[in-house]
User: Fold this.
Amino acid sequence: MMQPQENNTQYRRIEGRLCACRGQGAECRIDRIISTDLNDYLNPRFAPGAMLNTKPKTF
Assistant:
């Protein structure tokens, strides 16, 4: 019998795009992107499995 998996999906707005991500803190792995702009799906930065650092940049 399979154990139920914990769903730790977070929805984050990254560079104006809504992404379903998993991860803690500033780093997350994209599970999917939710967009009406077809070009967003062609952007490898938002491909499923891509790692993103959402930590704000300091200058």
Notes: The longest strand covers residues 27-34.
